[in-house]
Amino acid sequence: MSNKKVDTDNTGYFSVSESLDGFTDSSRRIATGATTFFRNPELLRQLTNTVLPSLASSGNRFHVWCAGCSTGMEVYSIAMVVLDWMDVNRCPLQCKILGSDISDEALGIARTGRYPSLKKLNQPNSILFNRYMLDDGNGSAVIGKELRAVTVFKQRDIALGSRSHKFELVVCDHVFQYFTETRQYEYLERLMAACQPHGFIYVSTPLNQVITEITNRYPVNKFAKHFYRLKG
Ligand SMILES: C[S@@+](CC[C@H](N)C(=O)[O-])C[C@H]1O[C@@H](n2cnc3c(N)ncnc32)[C@H](O)[C@@H]1O
User: Fold this and answer.
1) Is 106 in the pocket of ligand 1 (CB under 6 A)?
2) Whose CA is nearest to atom 13 of ligand 1?
3) Is the domain covering 40-114+144-230 a CATH 3.30.2140.20 domain?
4) Contact 221, 228 (CB under 8 A)
5) Mean pLDDT of all residues in the chain?
6) Which of these, 225, 231, 230, lies nearest to 46 by C-alpha position?
7) How far is the CA of 88 from the centre of ligand 1 (A)?
8) At what angle do helices 181-193 and 208-217 cross, to 10 degrees?
9) How confident is residue 163, by pLDDT bands cut at 50, 70 and 90?
10) Is the pLDDT confidence value at 7 over 50?
11) pLDDT at residue 119, as a whole number
């Protein structure tokens, strides 16, 4: 397993701390569990600028699958952004966000929703964080009930795909880079199959040849880096 720590200068707004190195699942040997709140500003920007307005104009269901969600920070960050967007735009959606991972240990933290030793930095998402996360008085941030209501976590290997459920948005961030080209194609197939017609899919960071194949192999339009929309 990698000993890589979260680079808070580059990506982090709220540090995940070094505790990830303590995971002992065998699954952790193949991929680091490094994650942070609001790790991917461009994904979240496209979510509010493109995905949510588009889906809200054609329906009110918004089911999201975060595949390889680690300890849940990605899921809760997306949930905060969606809840805020619905509030500001007075546009209630039936929102449910599924986080899945192969690591039971990571999912245990995700389900608890308690993050010790979070170092708050001065950054644009502090307002959202303070609104939806609670301070337990002992240095931990804990998810509030609004976040709990729209999130669920399941242990699932991406290779197994989604049983029958289809999602308006599929997100798989910082997972592909740990796998071979063959495995990347396999995961891509599963993720695409889980996406609704006209749904959105965000996948980072496949190999270049896999990226090229995405638009050749699947009926998608690319509208931003790593972001695609199914044609139908
Ligand atoms: C680097 S973390 C990324 C977490 C989050 N997506 C983010 O971007 O912050 C990679 C996660 O993928 C999970 N993972 C690796 N292979 C997986 C697989 N085949 N199925 C489900 N999860 C997987 C790991 O357990 C780890 O938690």
Assistant:
1) yes
2) 68
3) no
4) yes
5) 86
6) 225
7) 31
8) 40
9) confident
10) no
11) 56
CA gap 83, 70 in Å, rounded: 21
Choose among 28, 39, 101, 121: nearest CA to 76: 39
- The CB of 173 under 6 Å from ligand 1? The reply is yes
Tens of pLDDT, residue by residue over 174-206, are 999 989 999 999 999 999 999 999 999 999 999
> Which of 226, 231, 199 shows the shortest CA–CA distance to 214?
226
DSSP 40-98: -HHHHHHIIIIIHHHHHTT-SEEEEEEES-TTTHHHHHHHHHHHHHHHHTT---EEEEE
Distance CA 9, CA 194 (A): 34
Contact 153, 100 (CB under 8 A): yes
Q: Which atom of ligand 1 is nearest to the CA of 32?
A: 1
**Residue 107: what pLDDT?**
95
**Is there a contact between 210 and 186 (Cβ–Cβ < 8 Å)?**
no
The full set of domain ranges for the chain reads 40-114+144-230
Q: Which residue has the tokens 């798989």?
A: 172
Tokens 């996360």 locate to 133
Closest CA to 169 of 89, 74, 55, 70: 55
pTM to 2 decimal places:
0.89
Please tell me the distance from the alpha carbon of residue 210 to that of residue 228, in angstroms, as a whole number. Answer: 14
